[in-house]
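Narrative of activities, Objective 1.

The group set out to show that a structural description can be obtained from nothing but a protein's sequence at a throughput compatible with the screening campaign. Below is one input-output pair from the validation batch, recorded exactly as produced.
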Amino acid sequence: MSTSQSYEGHEEHHLIHRVGWLRAAVLGANDGIVSTASLVVGFAAASAGRPEILLAGVAGLIAGAMSMAAGEYVSVSSQSDTERADLAREAEALETMPEEETEELAEIYRSRGVDRETARKVAEQLMAVDPLKAHARDELGISETVVARPIQAAASSAASFSVGAALPLAAAAFSPIDLVAPAVVAASLASLGLLGFVSARAGGAKTARSVVRILVWGAFAMGVTALAGRLFGAVA
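Output recorded for this entry:
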């Protein structure tokens, strides 16, 4: 559900609130499809049997999902720690220097084009309601829309990676052994195209650009891995 604002018949729907979970979900699904498909195609190009191909794919799914979850949790936790530290410093400044903080907030509004008198009034009114929230939003750029949520990011990444990785694995499991590589490539490219379309629609972006971008990089990754698998398979 998108954020909406309505003023006397004028209503706007915004999608920026989705940026946190959407980024993690798209990254996880894309990585799941591309890395697992590349792994499977590489093993297939090296003339491995179906059990070895599926074992490699399942291992890649589990390792990738855990890696994505851990990576997202650590990185977003670091962002969250920084936000909390900044908010603590701001709260202390508000308590010890309220007048200076009011003037600082007014200066922010003046820099955005508000005249001096109005900027001061707005700053005073906001300081009277919730000074920390006002400074967090306008001075630090922290709001409920973009605040760091480590657990949500980790869960989204792990779940989306697993779903993405399951698609090339299914193609490898049910296709004829001599057609594993082309079947996985076809299924993966179709999945990537769908992912690009869905993510663009969810984020309100242009679908064609998103689909082409994700297809080009996915095909490149699988092509490089297939080449490596063929070369090393031939050597072995």
